[in-house]
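User: I'm writing a tutorial on reading structure tokens. Could you give me a worked example: one chain, its sequence, then its tokens, then a sentence or two explaining what the tokens reveal?
Assistant: Sure. Here is the example chain.
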Amino acid sequence: MSEIPVNLDVAIPLLVLAVLASYLVGRRFGTGPARLRELQSTLDAALEEREDLRRENEDYKKRVAEHFTETSHRLHDLTLQYRAVYDHLAKGAGELCPGEFEKLEGGLGLDALPNESLTEPGEDEAEGDDASI
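And here are its predicted structure tokens:
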């Protein structure tokens, strides 16, 4: 067998370079799957948080809409109650002070009130019109 001459001045730096290259390639591509799993996990958590925030926002919008719907109904009812009090006062003034008042001055802007407030339950239309004077 023949011997292959080895030049140690060239072989040792090449060996060091090969080890260093192997180490760098291993770091670059060897941790890829782990890094990919880590990034996927972060992305999944961010998407889940985004979905939770979207649901929370939708719930908030629904609560706001319900609140203002209820407020609208209550203001409508309050308007009808004010109208009933006004009609009661106008009727009482007409009956109790006929010489003093023909009608209450100023009014409530009756054309702006809801139509269902024009008559009370059990009254016919003609009686309801007279009561608003």
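What the tokens reveal: DSSP finds three helices and no strands in the chain. The CA atoms of residues 80 and 117 lie 6 Å apart.
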